[in-house]
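Thread: quick sanity check before group meeting

JM: Hey all, I'm pulling together slides for Thursday and realized we never actually wrote out the predicted structure for the chain we discussed last week. Dropping the sequence here so it's in one place. If anyone has concerns about the input, flag it before I start.
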Amino acid sequence: MVYFAYFQPVLQYGIIFGGNSTHAQQVFKLQKRVIRILSGTGPRSSCRNLFKKLNILPVPCQYILSLMLFIIENQQDFLTNTYVHSLDTRNKNHLYLPALSLTCVQKGVSYSGVKIFNNLPSNIQNYKGDRKKIKKELNKYLTIHLFYSITEFLECRTNKRNV
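JM (edit): ok, ran it. Output follows.
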């Protein structure tokens, strides 16, 4: 209760804007420190089991969840691949990801959101019209996997496609 009363609201405030910054890793380390203190474990113990036990999402997972809720709430502002070209491909319902080379734009909310949305499992993408259902399913998915970085999330989806 202490975590959800004091730490969680501060962490959630503006996470979609700062969750992909270089300072997010420092916040994640602080989150792990708080989790260890609250659970009474040592400073070098692994936090993955503690996150599952306490039902808390790590900072990268909270970023993914908040960003996906933003994308769902504003999906009218994003184009699908079907709108951009009329080819009937397997990714026709994915959001269109423009080719950009500026890192500051790629780390932005819209670009990162589209990239992460397109890498969600298809069973979760199918709920994009229902905010409650996608939040529930995505929260369950992130709680099972507990990604420690956005790169880990993206690689997990890529590896499953190649298998």
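AS: nice. The chain has one domain: 2-162. The CA atoms of residues 56 and 143 lie 8 Å apart.
JM: adding both to the slides.
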